[in-house]
Amino acid sequence: MVSSGLMSSVPTVPHGSAAGPDAPVCAASERAPASNDDPLLLRAYRGEPVERVPVWFMRQAGRSLPEYRAVREHAGLFEICRTPELAAEVTLQPVRRLGVDAAILFSDITLPLAAAGIDLEIVPGVGPVIAEPIRSTADLRRLRPFHPDEDAPYVAETVRLAVAELDVPLIGFAGGPFTLASYLIEGGPSKTHARTRKMMYGEPLLWRRLLEELADIAIASLRSQVTAGAEAVQIFDSWAGALDPDSYRDFVLPASRRIFSATADLNVPRIHFGVCTGELLPLLAAAGADVVGVDWRVPLDAARTRLGEEITVQGNLDPALCLAPWEILAEHVRAVLDRGGGTGHVFNLGHGVLPETSPDVLRRIVEHVREHTDAGPRTEDAERSVPRV
Amino acid sequence: MVSSGLMSSVPTVPHGSAAGPDAPVCAASERAPASNDDPLLLRAYRGEPVERVPVWFMRQAGRSLPEYRAVREHAGLFEICRTPELAAEVTLQPVRRLGVDAAILFSDITLPLAAAGIDLEIVPGVGPVIAEPIRSTADLRRLRPFHPDEDAPYVAETVRLAVAELDVPLIGFAGGPFTLASYLIEGGPSKTHARTRKMMYGEPLLWRRLLEELADIAIASLRSQVTAGAEAVQIFDSWAGALDPDSYRDFVLPASRRIFSATADLNVPRIHFGVCTGELLPLLAAAGADVVGVDWRVPLDAARTRLGEEITVQGNLDPALCLAPWEILAEHVRAVLDRGGGTGHVFNLGHGVLPETSPDVLRRIVEHVREHTDAGPRTEDAERSVPRV
To answer: Cβ separation of A321 and B194 shorter than 8 Å?
Structure first.
C-alpha cells in the first residue's frame, strides 16, 4: 500500500548549500553535531543558517485529505494506527501531496495509554473517551509500564515502513504529561480540566506518581520511534496552557524534564508544544527542549524574546487562516516568516490543521514559504527580524 | 422574594477612611472625579489608594449556590433573567452569603440577542444554541436594533430592585463583539471558532456590519443598566483570546472602541475581560477600558507591565484552585494579592466560578483577601509589588 510515487513528487532537498554572506549566524549551532549533509529540517531545528525556512503542518496527516478519508472508510482511527501498512500510507500522503519538509508519524497521543492497559477509544466528534478514569492510587494500577516492542510493535514498524519511502525526516511524537493526565482523570476531553487540577493541587503524591508514569510511557515511546528511524520528536502537551506558570513549574515541569533528560542521548531535535502557552514558553524550553512550538496567539518575535537565542521556534500561523481568502492568508504567512527571522525557525501552523482545510491551500502555503524565504532573509525585513548574531 | 436580610450580613464598607502613609499613590487617580465617600470598589477601580483590596467573583451569582439551585428548580435560566424579582434575588444571593464588595447583575450575555430577534436558547450542559446561525448579509436582517426599554425592560427593573437592596455597587455587563459574533455565526459554543474567523477574514464588510450591530446592542444595554443604577460595567469578550493580536486589532478593536467610546459619558468604571488574552492585554486597554480583567495564565505583575500604570487590573486566581485544599488555595490568593500590588487591583478569579465550587470556599477567600490586605500593602511584600508611585 505504500506507494513509491512519493519519490517523484517530493522536491529534492538541496544538500550542503552554503549560506550566503548575509545569512545570520546562529548562536545555537554548536548544540548538536552539525552536518551540512543533514536534511534542511534538522539543520533548521539546530538553529543553523539555512537556505530557506522548512515547513510542515501539525495534523498534516489525516482529516483534511481526501485520500485519508478514503482509508478511513474502511478502518477506524486506532485500526489504522495499529496496521503499519495503513499508518505508513497515511503518514506519507501529505508528504506526497503537499511537498512538506517533514513527515509526522500517523498515530495518536493516547495510543500508548491504550497499549498500556487503559480501556480507551477515540469517539468521532468527541475525542478520546476512557471507560474508567484514573482518580485514585488504586486506579493507577491499571496503567501498566509501556513496552513498545511488545505492547505496540506496530508503531516502530510504521516508522520503519514510512522512513524507507521518505526523502524527508520523519518526526515521532508523544503526549505530554499534563495532557495525558487530563484525559485519564477527566475520562475524556474537558473545557476546564477541573478534576485534573483538583487532583494536582489536592493529591500531589498521586499526581506526581501518575505524571512520572506518563513521562516514562513517553520516554519508552519516543526511544522506540527514534530507534526505528524517527529523526526528530515532538512532545504534544497540548493542554498544559490551562495552567498558570507557577503551577506548571511546580506540578508538570519535573515530569517534562524527565522526558527531555531521558531522551537527550538520542541526539535528535526535540520539540515541545502546547496551545495557550504564551506565559509558559520559558518553562517549555527549561524542560530541556531544543525547539518550542508556539501557538498563533504569540507573535514569533515576542516568543523569541521570551525564549532566548538558544531555542529554535516552530509555528505559528493561525489554522483558521487556512480558511481565509488567499491574499489575506499569504500576507499572514509572510508576517510569520518575517517575525520568525529566517534562522532558527521552522514554519508550521500554531495548532493542528482544521478538518475543513483544503489540501490545495496547504500546498500553496508550502510554495509561498519557499518563494518567500528561498533567497534568505530579505533586507527590507531586517528590522522586523530578531537579531540572531 | 428580595430579602432584606442582606443588610445585616454584608459588612459595612468603611467610608472615607484615609489611606495610611505607606499606601502607594496611584498615578491614575485623576481619571474620574474622585470622592472618598464612594464605595471601596469604585475607588479601587479608579486606581485610588484604598484601605484594602476589594473582592468579587465572576459568576458569583448562580451555579455554585444552593439557594440559586433552589430557584432553578422552578425556573429556566432565561425565565429567571426575565422575571425581575427572581433575577434580583439571584443577584443578591452571593452578596448575602459571601460578603463580596460588588454584586453583578444576574443575566446572560446572549439575552439581548434573543431580545433583538434571534431564536436562541440556553441548553443546559451546552450553552447558547441558535436555531438559524448568521452567515450572510440576508441573515443579518434577523438581528434587529436593540431597544432595552421595549425589548427587555425586565433587565433595568432587575437592576433597580437589586440596587434598592444593596449596600455595595452593582456591576452591569454586556457581551463583547467577538464573543457574541462567534455564538451567532457558529450557532453555539465552538472549540475553534473556525466559521467565525472564516467570515472575519473572508467577508470583512459583513463582519464589520455584524460587529457594529453587536457593539450597538452592547451600548444600548450598558446605558440602560447604568441609568437604572449599575455603578460599573464589564464587557465580557470571553473568546477574543482566540485571535492573534494583529487580527484582534484589525477585526475586533474598532467595535470594542465603539462600545467604550459610546459609554465614556456614563462616568462609571468600565472593565474589559477575556480569557487567553495575555498578548491582547494592551489592546483590551486601548479599546478604552479603565480596568482590564486578567485570566489566571498571566501573573498580575506581568500583566501590569503590559498594561501600564493607568489601568487597574482585576483578577486573577485560577478558578480550579477553589477546588484545592485550603492551604494551597490561600497561598495562591496571597500570591495574587502580592503581585496585584495593593493599589489599582480588584481581586477576582481569572474566569467564572466553576459549578463544583463550594460557596464556603468562596466566603473564606473573601475573608482571606480582607485579612491579607486590610493593613495596606505589607512591607515584606514590597519587592514583589509593582511600584505605583
So the answer is: no
- Give the active site residue among B72, B223, B270, B388: B72
| Cβ <8 Å between B356 and A194 | yes
Total Cβ atoms within 10 A of residue B376: 19
- B-chain CB neighbours of A350 within 8 Å are 244
Task: Report, as an integer, the average pLDDT of A184-195.
Answer: 93
Q: Which residues of B touch A325 (CB under 8 A)?
A: 201-202
- The CATH code of domain B40-373 reads 3.20.20.210
pLDDT tens profile B357-372: 999 999 999 999 999 9
Provide mean pLDDT across the span A177-206: 95
Per-residue pLDDT, A231: 98
Put simply, the answer to whether B197 touches A298 (Cβ < 8 Å) is no
Residues of A with CB under 8 A from a CB of B: 192-194, 197-198, 201-202, 241, 243-247, 276, 278-279, 296-299, 302, 318-321, 323-325, 328-329, 332, 335, 350, 354, 356
Residue-wise pLDDT for B239-249, tens only, equals: 999 999 999 99
Residue A33 banded pLDDT, cuts 50, 70, 90: low
- CB spacing of A323 vs B197 below 8 angstroms: yes
Establish whether B108 is a catalytic residue: yes
Picking from A246, A297, A320, the nearest residue to B197 by CB comes out as A320
pTM reported for the whole predicted model: 0.88
Task: Provide mean pLDDT across the span B155-180.
Answer: 98
Q: Domain locations in chain A?
A: 40-373
Per-residue pLDDT reduced to its tens digit, A325-377? 999 999 999 999 999 999 999 999 999 999 999 999 999 999 999 999 885 54
